[in-house]
Amino acid sequence: MKFSANLGFLWNDRPLPDAIRAAEAAGFDAVECHWPYDIPADAVKAALSETGLPMLGLNTRRGDVSAGDNGLSAIPGREAGARAAIDEAINYAVAIGAANIHVMAGFAAGDEAFQTFIANLKYACDQAAPHGTTILIEPLNKYDAPGYFLTTTDQALAIIKAVGAPNLKLMFDCYHVQLMEGDLTHKIAALLPSIGHIQFASVPDRGAPDHGEINFDHVFEVIRQLDYDAPLGAEYKPGGNTDDTLGWLKHRSAAGL
Ligand SMILES: O=C(O)[C@H](O)C(=O)CO
Ligand SMILES: [Mg+2]
């Protein structure tokens, strides 16, 4: 199996280019990030070229984080900010060769929010398509992000259907889906055609995938048997030195898994 280091959490104690180098040294096959915008795209691109790792994806900016924003695209009245964040994300992704953009919905509810999200996602998919970029939407759990618009895979599928764009996919984060729905392996199998990227962390503490209520040896094996061979995103909180949390990766590599 191949693994991608999510540098929003792993090695986030250092500048993004150095985190890319650390991920390569640790044996990851790819990297992904959250909000890289403070780092010039040229510096990120240079670290990617130097290491040979692809950057799989990044997120749209969340808005005014100090005022509590966690994305803008489902918030009625915030369309201008949402689309500026989408444009910025596409420009950055194209500059560094990132294949996916997670368009963040934000805190909202109801039909107006649904219609706003659909319209902004149509805009994002139209703008991204000429670059071959995929747009991702990700259900987040109600404990970490109470009030977030998108919380379940059923809701994500309804949104994907309503937008009707071939470059709109589901970000299936095992951590969030386990907390909201469970039944991970049936869900991954059923949703595979709609999945653009898979992420993981232990539940409930969002740590390395070697403890907690999910047996990742089993989940990864099911994913392998489904012939899904894209890198899986390690999006967990190391709670200290990332290099000290990589026993799971070393164990898999030593076992040839
Ligand atoms: O928190 C997550 O799971 C995300 O993947 C993210 O991109 C930031 O909310
Ligand atoms: Mg995630």
UniProtKB/TrEMBL annotation:
GO terms for biological process: glyoxylate metabolic process. This is Isomerase. One of its GO terms (molecular function) is hydroxypyruvate isomerase activity. It comes from Aliishimia ponticola. InterPro entries: HyI-like, Sugar_Epim/Isomerase, Xyl_isomerase-like_sf, Xyl_isomerase-like_TIM-brl. Pfam families: AP_endonuc_2. The active site is at 138 (proton donor/acceptor), 235 (proton donor/acceptor). Belongs to the hyi family. Keywords: Isomerase. Residues 20-250 form the Xylose isomerase-like TIM barrel domain.
